[in-house]
Amino acid sequence: MPTDVSPDRLRGTTDSPEGKRRTVSLRLETVVASAPVPGHSPHDPGARLAGSDAVAALIVLDDGSYVLQLRDDKPDIWYPNHWGCFGGAVDAGEEPVEALRRELYEELELEFDEAEYFTRFDFDLTKLGAGRYHRTFYVVRVSAAQRAGFVLHEGKAFDAFAGETVCRDLRVTPYDAFALFLHHAQSRIGG
Question: Among 62, 66, 24, 53, which Cα is nearest to 184's?
């Protein structure tokens, strides 16, 4: 336990592996670093972000890994240069699964038979003058053969990652990160 704390030093006592008490002193240093704000591009701080109702796919491979897109580094999109789910805006009059089918074909040339509803997040941005929107997530299961046929048309890259890697190690858009966490940890959630 610390017995003395000063702005530049921490002192205390501890037991050594041999059972003897010893005094420990650590010099403290303050490190100030500039870190980028997530989703903010310094290239064009005046770029306007627009909201819309959207769909997203939790693309799950046979081994349980998730296929994600590395988003472009453009100032006019939400969370540039982050990993995220494939998907996009729902056009006026379009059903969500139709929008998902269109988006996945446009972005990856992926055609699928089934999309299973997973969850929906609602966003109230009215205080920011941006309205109310939702993002609906569907699970789309894909074989290795289907993945081999993907052709990337949007984003910088795509890859597959184990759930643990997605949840701990990647810089993922926050809303997609939460949906991926819920899917990956679903056996631990609920009653």
Answer: 66
Tokens standing for residue 96: 């969500």
CA distance 180 to 82: 14
Containing 144, the helix (H) or strand (E) segment is helix 144-148
Closest-CA residue to 172 (of 71, 90, 97): 71
Angstrom CA distances, 90 to 64, 68, 96, 177, 178, stand at 27, 20, 6, 20, 21
| Chain-centre distance for alpha carbon 29 | 32
User: What is the rounded distance in angstroms from the CA atom of residue 185 to the CA atom of residue 182?
Assistant: 5
pLDDT for 22 = 56
List the domains of the chain with CATH numbers. 1-32 (no CATH), 54-188 (3.90.79.10)
3-state secondary structure of 21: strand
Token pair, residue 15, equals 């037991």
Average pLDDT of every residue of the chain:
84
* 26, 12 contact by CB (below 8 A): no
Q: Which residue has the tokens 């000063």?
A: 6
Q: What are the Cα distances from residue 128, in Å, to 36, 56, 124, 134?
A: 22, 24, 9, 16
- The better pLDDT of the pair 161, 77 is held by 161
**Interatomic CA distance for residues 85 and 83, integer angstroms:** 7
The per-residue pLDDT for 43 is: 54
